[in-house]
Design goal:
Elements (H helix, E strand, L loop, with lengths): L1 H5 L5 H14 L18 E4 L1 H11 L1 H20 L6 E8 L12 E8 L3 H7 L1 H65 L6 H35 L8 E4 L17 H11 L1 H22 L6 E9 L7 E10 L9 H67 L4 H36 L6
Parallel strand pairs: 1-4
Antiparallel strand pairs: 2-3, 3-5, 5-6
């Protein structure tokens, strides 16, 4: 019989069955479990993207640090606006000439009260200017906290998508490894009557490589989970963070359906917290200059003093009340250094603001360019590349089953399909990263 001669005595029914099994196993369309992997001991914690953003707002380390700076600035406002406490001094007095003689009134008393510059500070408004400087610093600190939140949220969103992509990569590698293992089992049945040892070795090599890719994908997934936990301020053992795989699915947010560069630039100028912080810092330096100039007025202290030595009509020092004024005379120095330093700080703040606004425009331009490119690439994958790679693999599988394609052709088609799907995952990550970086550039959430 022709079939028996070709396959060394194996029945045609058995050969057809083996070929069908091989074709199904190489199609990669069925979900299957990969090689056994030791499960992590960390507890599983399911977390959506909204959950991650909410945690980052309250537990992100950069947000907590900036919140501490805000509390410090609030304390500085209280310090700058405090009302000076009056100073009082009092003590007994004794006549020197009464230590050796007999005096009828040897003891006396003196006391003094100073306003510590309270009245002068209110009249010259120095205290009000110091408080104004502190309030501007507080405003800048609050915008700094908002800016830290803006950056942390963007970082968390990007990391969340990278973690979701790592999950998808594990699924893909397990699917490939399971299919190749089935192919190895089928081809071992066909060896040595249908295929030679070299062909079997090549299939086994591909299967072993696929198993290694599963381990690498699992390692990468765990690292992405650890990185996400750090951004979320997780303390103690890092849990097995189960993220929503569908977050990675391609879609165009409604806010990005039409790209209006001018509108995005206006939004960035209005919403970016770091720009508002820069504006507040300029105002703080303006107030510092005003305070430094006002400090040229000497600090005046008013003093009320009471003195008494002895008592009665013959007292050496009858009760006396006096009022005095104390102030440094600005003969040699009139705050030139403080005024110059404040003016230099104001100029620095102005330049820093202009530089930030230039970088802001560049951030928006770069983010829009990256988003447009990433969107086109992903759309090209979904419209043609994925389907063509799958079709080429399926056709080559059928041809290999019919004997018109070689094992090399089949493996090449499989590798091409794997490369296209792996590249697609990478481009999805790039796409969503560009979306979240655009959010960061304009200072407004575009995806919730």
């Amino acid at each position: 019989m022709k079939t028996s001669r070709r396959f060394g005595g194996i029945s045609a029914r058995a050969v057809r069955l083996a070929v069908v099994v091989a074709g199904l196993s190489l199609a990669f369309s069925a979900r299957a479990d990969g090689p056994a992997v030791v499960a992590p001991s960390a507890p599983v914690q399911t977390m959506s993207l909204a959950d991650a953003v909410g945690i980052a707002r309250t537990r992100g380390y950069d947000v907590l640090l900036s919140a501490a700076s805000v509390r410090g600035a609030e304390a500085e406002v209280r310090v700058a606006g405090q009302t000076p406490n009056p100073a009082i001094s009092a003590g007994p007095a004794r006549r020197v000439d009464c230590f050796s003689g007999n005096c009828p009134t040897p003891w006396g008393f003196n006391a003094s009260l100073s306003d510590q510059g309270l009245i002068e500070g209110a009249i010259t408004r120095k205290r009000k200017l110091r408080e104004d400087v502190a309030k501007r610093a507080l405003e800048a600190a609050r915008f700094g906290r908002a800016n830290a939140e803006r950056v942390v949220i963007s970082q968390v969103k990007v990391q969340y998508v990278q973690t979701a992509a790592a999950v998808a990569r594990v699924e893909l590698t397990r699917e490939i490894a399971a299919s190749l293992q089935k192919s190895v089992d089928v081809n071992r049945v066909r060896y040595p009557r249908v295929i030679d040892e070299g062909q079997l070795a090549r299939v086994e090599q591909e299967s072993l490589r696929a198993d290694a890719e599963v381990d690498i994908a699992l390692r990468q997934l765990r690292q992405e989970q650890i990185d996400l936990a750090v951004l979320l301020g997780t303390e103690g053992p890092v849990p097995d963070l189960a993220v929503d795989r569908k977050t990675l699915d391609f879609r165009v947010p409604e806010a990005l359906a039409v790209l209006d560069k001018a509108a995005f630039l206006r939004t960035a100028m209005e919403n970016r917290a770091d720009r508002k912080q820069a504006v507040a810092q300029v105002a703080q330096m303006e107030a510092s200059v005003s305070l430094a100039e006002r400090q040229r007025i000497p600090d005046v202290s008013l003093t009320v003093q009471y003195q008494q030595l002895g008592s009665g009509d013959n007292a050496p020092q009858p009760p006396t009340l006096s009022v005095g004024v104390g102030l440094p005379l600005p003969l040699f120095y009139q705050q030139q250094g403080e005024i110059g330093r404040a003016a230099a700080d104001r100029q620095t703040a102005l330049v820093a603001r202009r530089r930030l606004e230039t970088l802001l425009v560049a951030d928006v331009e770069s983010a829009l360019n990256t988003f447009s490119t990433a969107r086109r690439v992903v759309e090209r994958y979904e419209s043609a590349l994925l389907e063509r790679a799958k079709r080429a693999r399926d056709i080559t599988t059928v041809q290999y089953t019919a004997g018109s394609a070689t094992l090399t052709d089949l493996l090449d088609a499989q590798r091409s399909w794997v490369a296209v799907n792996t590249g697609y995952l990478a481009e999805l990550v790039s796409y969503w990263t560009s979306v979240f970086l655009l959010e960061q550039a304009v200072g407004k959430e575009l995806v919730r």
